[in-house]
Specification:
Layout lengths: L1 E2 L1 H27 L7 H27 L1 E5 L2 E5 L6 E3 L6 E5 L6 E5 L5 E6 L2 E2 L7
Antiparallel strand pairs: 1-8, 2-3, 3-4, 5-6, 6-7
Helix pairs in contact: 1-2
């Protein structure tokens, strides 16, 4: 189960488009730094946009890696930048509703109450988890 590809690709394209625009603002801010009126504001706006664009690109890479692979006898959980981990069905003691705003789903926990995985309803093939 993965998040639909178009969601993270759309954000990635937006981040890639915003990055050069923010670089132009930074360069413009540096060039006009002597001008007391617009220089610092343009530089600060460019730096903020550059940080936002970088954050969006990093978020998209994490979303692209997020998945739960269902294999006979085990689940392989990929959580963004963490290394994949195997979850055996015998370790899952509780599956409960996961209320997460607009995109609820299910959450699997072990006997200690630790979160083993969660799947939002927007994930592709989410109903397959019930098998």
């Amino acid at each position: 189960m993965r998040i639909a590809t178009w969601r993270w690709v759309f954000l990635l394209v937006v981040g890639i488009i915003v990055a050069p625009i923010s670089l132009l603002l930074v360069v413009g801010g540096i060039v006009t730094a002597g001008d007391a009126e617009d220089g610092p504001a343009m530089l600060v706006a460019g730096l903020v946009l550059l940080l936002v664009a970088a954050g969006v690109v990093v978020l998209c890479v994490g979303l692209a890696r997020t998945a739960i692979d269902v294999h006979p006898g085990m689940l392989v959980v990929h959580d963004g930048f963490r290394k994949p981990r195997e979850v055996h069905p015998s370790a899952i003691t509780e599956i409960r509703f996961w209320p997460a705003g607009r995109y609820p789903g299910v959450q699997g926990r072990n006997s200690k109450g630790q979160d083993l995985f969660h799947v939002a309803t927007i994930a592709v093939n989410a109903p397959r988890l019930a098998e």
